[in-house]
Amino acid sequence: MELTNNDKELLATIADLHSVPLGAYNIRKDGKLVSRSVSANINIVTKKDKPGIDVFIKDGTVNESVHIPVIVSEAGLKDLVYNDFYVGKDCDVTIVAGCGIACGTSADEGHDGIHSFHIDKNSKVKYVEKHYASGSGSGKRILNPITNIYLDKNSYMKMDTVQISGVTESVRQTDAVLDDGAKLEINEKIMTDESEYAETIFNVDLNGKDSSTHVVSRAVAKNKSHQVFKSVINGNNKCFGHTECDAIIMDEANIVAKPELTAKSVDASLIHEAAIGKIAGDQIIKLQTLGLTEQEAEEEIIKGFLR
Amino acid sequence: MLELKDICFSVKENGKIKQILKNINLTIEDDMFFVITGPNGSGKSTLAKIIMGINKPTSGKIIFNDKDITHLSITERAKLGISFAFQQPVKFKGITVKDMISLATNKEATVADACKFLSDVGLCARDYIDRDIDDSLSGGELKRIEIATIIARASKLTIFDEPEAGIDLWSFNSLIKTFKNLKNKYKCGFIIISHQERILDIADKIIILSNGEVSTVGKKDEVISKLSEVYSTCLKLEEAQNGTN
What we know:
heterodimer, A: ten-stranded mixed beta sheet, ten-stranded mixed beta sheet, B: 40% helix
């Protein structure tokens, strides 16, 4: 199967891929494998019992990356995929996933990616995930990603997740379990427009001694869109947890933020912050005094906020 | 040149009309450093905002370089070459110093560009260009970045609304140096709203506002006695009001 120009544009948007990536990769389109490459340290194997892949990263792999973008362009397709990542000990790797939907008909299209990360002791993983949908069709573009994260002792994961625009409905569920000394940072950027609905649920269990997490969401809701942000942190040991939701609300949008903290240890330190508000009037005036129109000022403020 | 003709500004307060500015007539010549001073509540900041278009006058006319700008928006005035430095610099999440200089100059700023403007306010570009203009910066840093952004615009007329507000003494000393430097280096009109005597010292002309009216205009030695008189009247009024309360 060959990639069209539209596919290449989607790949550039969701995975910053402008050509064939270096290192290991697995490109999937409309439920089928398009191309795959493995390296001496990273192996990718197709699952036998269900759709998806297993990615095995050897102990001590450093400065390598894995790209696993998905494109959905077939009318009416609802793609379901299970991707499991087994990251060995003492690794330092980058994993880039993402889903681009091009919807050209009235039939709904969607992708449910279920990703599980098993990160062994002392490893560092940067995981980047982007969701984007485009096309002139009236069908819904639906994405429901599920991410399961298991962080072994002293491991670290940074997850950057971005939902840019055009996704009609999405429910994102991320569950993480952290062992001693493990650290998880999540940065979510999300923008909804028209009548889109986006719900994100983060559930982090800080089980290990000295484990820590930061779950930070920046969100913009325009027009009649609706967003729900739920962040649950369970402090089950001596640990540190912080969750923050910062949202700009515009037009007739609706945003719900529900941070939830549970401490089951006297040494657990947990913080939540949530702020929802419109763009401050003085920010717009400041940019107008530099020669921007009101609309240009709003665009610049949102661009910076979601950077 | 900026001309203010019979500028009045009033607001409704508790159902009553309160006059903030009364028939202000002023001419601000090019290449001059004007300081507008006066007691609290005399209408200085309101006048600055009226010139920038942030507030609209109830009546009167504003002429800038022979063009009537009374009904122009903030954006249109900015494009004609008027700049405004805020008393409290506005903070942004995710907008960096470099972004702000790029917006001010209307082109992608390089490190060299940023250095040119930030060094004028005593900041090292490399330490600041990638920093967000937010709470992570001190009041003095925010103020200096605000001024650097305004310098970057190279405007025909620049208004500073109480630049000394909210900064420490060390930053204030730097601010005075910055203004002296700006005055010598850039040939454009400046209007500074200030209470500070050391800023009055570097003014070409001082405008004293009192109770929403222009009390007097002149060089420092010409207006100094009037200034003491205005402040002492204001003090007596405050004391009388406190006495009746």
